[in-house]
Amino acid sequence: MPLIEEFERSGISLFRWRSYLPFVFLPLIVVAAIRYPAIETNPSLHFAWGMFSLWFSLLGLFVRCHTVGHAAQGTSGRNTEEQIAETLNTSGFYSVLRHPLYLGNFLIAFGIVLHSCSPWLVALFIALFALYYERIMFAEEAFLRRKFGPDFVRWAAKTPAVLPRLRRWRRAELPMNWPKVIRAESTAFAVIAIAFPSLEFLMHRMQEGTIAVEMAWYYILATGVALYFVARIMKRNFRRWARYEAILLKAAK
């Protein structure tokens, strides 16, 4: 099989499992957290590092929410079986890079890994993420090129793959679709809100024999869990309204 076809084939296979890549690092993050340098030596610096790491994950969540919320229907979804794109998105974050959702994924996971304060784990994560998503992006772009032809080629020629070219920013053409964002990204928000406090609890438990951490982590955990359940309720209402709307449209015809 030609190498170009092998790349695309492996990218399609990896695409189906892309949501599970962070779980591969979960045991390594736990090990790194247990081996974390003594917290009591500089608790203020430790807390500042946690907030710094959290900032990366929240930035990644923002990138994902903005991208998903302004993307056309039938694109930028969480589908796992096959590539889907009814429209070629070229505005918003798609005006400064070709794969904003994967950048968002990277930043979310990078923040969690960074919080472990393990240089070897951070380096391993960056290397594996690049290798894993390179194939996925290759397969995705092959699909888009076949479907959109010259339009994709022109857009790709002036838009970098993963490193944003911010001076090319163009405002999103579609308005923000908050129901779509809530449906798609509530789980990512919950993961962030649970992962950081959980790592803090683990670090303190292993080193100090207690789970007493800064109150900010309790607030983050409580807020994250509460908002997640609110989002779950809203998602059910969205589905109910969608079914009701479909019935009305069918009756109108």
UniProtKB/TrEMBL annotation:
GO biological process: methylation
Predominant place of localization: membrane
Compartment annotation: Endomembrane system
Domain of life according to the entry: Bacteria
UniProt cross-references to InterPro entries, sorted A to Z: Phopholipid_MeTrfase (IPR007318)
GO MF, one annotated term: methyltransferase activity
One Pfam family of this chain: PEMT
Membrane topology, as annotated: Multi-pass membrane protein
Key words of the record: Membrane, Methyltransferase, Transferase, Transmembrane, Transmembrane helix
One GO cellular component, as annotated: endomembrane system
Segments traversing the membrane: 20-38, 45-63, 106-133, 216-234
Gene3D superfamilies listed in its UniProt record: 1.20.120.1630
Name of the featured protein: Isoprenylcysteine carboxyl methyltransferase (ICMT) family protein
